[in-house]
Write a structure and sequence with these properties.
The protein has 94 residues and is mainly α. Among the domains are: 30 residues, no CATH class; 33 residues, no CATH class. It has 5 helices and no strands.
Length: 94
């Protein structure tokens, strides 16, 4: 729902209607707005380096390295931040 309203706002800002049949990506490029996913992908390595420099007793670092005890839910395991970092940052030093 938020994405729909956001796109509607951008469409109005650029001066288009739905009947103009412009793609959302084209409108974002025209307005020079970076999509949120790309911005997060670009920011994640910086955040991980920042967490790595923290003291071990700080809550963000504790939560990043937390391994729960007990049984997990059925189904495939949820993706964690470090799993994504290992696949996305392979070959980099953070």
């Amino acid at each position: 729902m938020i994405g729909v309203n956001r796109d509607k706002f951008f469409r109005r800002t650029a001066g288009y209607t739905l009947f103009d049949h412009n793609r959302n990506e084209e409108i974002l490029e025209e307005l020079k707005i970076e999509p949120v996913n790309q911005k997060l992908r670009r920011y994640k390595p910086n955040w991980l380096r920042f967490i790595a420099r923290m003291n071990n007793n700080r809550m963000p670092k504790v939560m990043l390295n937390y391994r729960p005890a007990g049984r997990r839910r059925f189904g495939s395991p949820l993706k964690r931040l470090l799993d994504e970092a290992e696949t996305g940052l392979s070959g980099r030093n953070w």
